[in-house]
Write a structure and sequence with these properties.
mainly alpha, Glycosyltransferase, three-stranded antiparallel sheet, 22 strands, disordered N terminus, disordered C terminus, binds 1-deoxymannojirimycin
Length: 575
């Protein structure tokens, strides 16, 4: 009972944060009126259905659609498998795109199609397949998709045929979870990256995995344990996460790849993009979902290290975990999720700054290139593609929720325009092979339906979020924030609950209350300055005019300054 009340309090506080930030938009331009919002919502709805219907017509029940040839690919066995090794001979797909679409169908309010999908999966889906799959990919797409759809089916039972839903998706999820468990049987508890669904870990399997691969399992496996009462899934994911965390350097940095048998790092350089991204995301989101201090403590230290060693103004480079010295100066498309995570934490100022830069790159190319070499100011010679990724849309959605600044709706409009212009074809939506020529690739990734379309839709219609607080998994599948799942509410959040008025609230955020103690506001820096919550850019063009317009940086507690171009930031390297 106590736990449940605390969790509700916490959830309310998160909602309060969003409301509070809402008030910072200061009545900016309302050019984005109701009808334009409705128009955009319908435009995104059409995008989703175009992708979904073409998949159902030309690829289902295989995994993903090939939109240029109206055919399919059984890609679950190919995900993460760059050299396409050990491909199965008799694998005919798991209806991956349908699984990934279920939660989006609920967000769009289409319970008829949702029910049809659930019925088909209940009757036909089996994981008893001789297929070697990537544990991380299968976890976020399949296990996450099934669990989220199960919870939604249960929540919206009244919208489905009477007596229709009897936990079929949860049973499938449990079957899959059991097949994951052998991967964790290593001397370190760190899971193998690859597992055969039917036969477990293959002989001579590679022992190399990524930080995301063993650090981004806790949401799905934790929820599976909470729903089934079988603690093995959460215990395995938590053991792996703890072991991974114990491998951090004295700077609180981690590498990108490691060996699951020896527990040694293989690649010491890392950043916030490929191979690491969702590790950070899951620490924070596990804290919100399960309320355990342990996740917050890990996230907090990791976040501060990222801001200290990877950040350069609004950009993030990579660094060696042992020395903190920069290694690669590259922008990657996956990094664009970071402002969304920062917004969830309350560090909206930093989020806003980076988001603008990613959007600027999107505008320059028409979409986000997979990798851009910041030090050479050029596209990466081989990674010039854009596979319909969601990260910029995701961050735009979070920032709009936090600020209600209509500018983010315009950003969304640009993204929607580019996607329709460059990637829509008769047979669905195609990935871009080369952003410099806009040559297309015959692949519609399932995350286009689970994430890209969902976040864009939620930008213009968030009614799905009205009655329940959700955390979105890294694949965009909503999981409810439930009091029952909270062990206890950490003390630091008492700050939020004690907030009485707006002025007080504006000086506290999850991070600032830890990093910049409130006394700092009465000290050298002066009273009434918020640290983390937002850039108090009350001006209509969102730009500062003087240093005084900029708040305090949440991680260094240093005064931000106003750049020549009119942006608040810490323009020097943070050391
Ligand atoms: C998705 O599968 C997830 O968002 C994952 O965390 C990163 N990559 C893709 C989308 O780009």
């Amino acid at each position: 009972m106590r736990a449940s009340r605390s969790a509700k309090g916490f959830a309310k506080c998160v909602a309060f944060l969003l409301l509070l930030l809402d008030s910072f938009s200061n009545g900016r331009s309302t050019a984005f009126g109701y009808s334009r919002k409705t128009y955009m919502r319908e435009k995104v709805r059409k995008m989703f259905y175009h992708a979904y219907e073409k998949y159902m017509a030309n690829a289902f029940p295989h995994d993903e659609l090939k939109p240029l040839t109206n055919s399919f690919t059984d890609s679950l066995s190919e995900l993460g498998n760059l050299n396409l090794e050990h491909l199965p001979r008799n694998y005919n797909g798991s209806a991956l795109t349908l699984i990934e679409s279920l939660s989006s169908l609920v967000v769009l309010g289409n319970f008829t199609e949702f029910e049809k999908g659930v019925l088909w999966l209940s009757d036909n889906l089996t994981f008893d397949a001789d297929a070697r799959i990537n544990l991380f990919e299968c976890n976020i797409r399949v296990l996450g998709g099934l669990l989220s759809a199960h919870i939604l089916a249960d929540n919206y039972k009244r919208r489905l045929a009477d007596g229709f839903y009897k936990n079929q998706l949860l049973n499938l999820a449990e079957d899959l979870g059991q097949r994951f468990l052998p991967a964790f049987e290593t001397p370190t508890g760190l899971p193998y990256a690859w597992i055969n669904l039917k036969y477990g870990v293959m002989e001579n399997e590679t022992t190399e995995t990524s930080t995301s691969g063993c650090g981004s399992l806790i949401l799905e496996m934790g929820v599976l344990s909470r729903l089934t009462g079988d603690s093995r899934y959460e215990a395995a994911a938590l053991r792996a996460l703890r072991r991974l965390w114990s491998m951090r350097s004295s700077l609180n940095l981690l590498g990108t790849t490691l060996d699951v048998v020896t527990g040694e790092w293989i690649e010491y350089s890392s950043g916030i993009g490929a191979g690491v991204d969702s590790f950070y995301e899951y620490l924070m989101k596990a804290y919100v979902l399960f309320g355990s201090d342990e996740y917050w403590d890990m996230f907090h230290s990791a976040y501060l290290a990222v801001q200290k060693y990877f950040r350069h103004g609004p950009w993030y480079h990579e660094a060696d975990m042992r020395t903190g010295k920069p290694t690669y100066w590259q922008l990657t498309s996956l990094q664009a999720f970071w402002p969304g995570l920062q917004t969830l934490v309350g560090d909206v100022a930093a989020a806003n700054l980076s988001h603008r830069e990613f959007f600027h790159v999107w505008q320059s190319f028409g979409v986000l290139p997979e990798r851009y070499l910041l030090d050479h100011n050029m596209l990466h010679p081989t990674e010039k593609y854009y596979p319909l990724r969601p990260e910029l849309a995701e961050s735009t959605f979070y920032l709009y929720q936090a600020t209600k600044d209509p500018w983010y709706l315009e950003v969304g409009e640009t993204i929607v325009g580019s996607l329709n212009h460059h990637t829509r074809v008769d047979g669905g939506f195609a990935s871009v092979r080369d952003v410099s020529t806009m040559q297309l690739e015959d692949h519609q990734h399932s995350f286009f339906l689970s994430e890209t379309c969902k976040y864009l839709y939620l930008l213009y219609d968030d009614s799905f979020l009205a009655d329940q607080n959700y955390i979105f998994t890294t694949e965009g599948h909503p999981l409810p924030v439930r009091g029952l799942w909270h062990e206890k509410l950490p003390d630091m959040y008492s700050n939020w609950m004690a907030v009485k008025d707006e002025n007080q609230a504006s000086r506290i955020s999850a991070l600032s209350s830890q990093v910049c103690p409130e006394t700092i506001f009465g000290g050298n820096i002066g009273p009434r300055r918020e640290s983390a919550c937002h850039v108090p850019d009350a001006h209509l063009n969102h730009r500062c005019r003087a240093d005084d317009d900029c708040g305090i940086d949440s991680t260094s507690c240093r005064q931000r300054t106003c750049s020549v171009a009119g942006y608040c930031g810490l323009w020097l390297f943070v050391t």
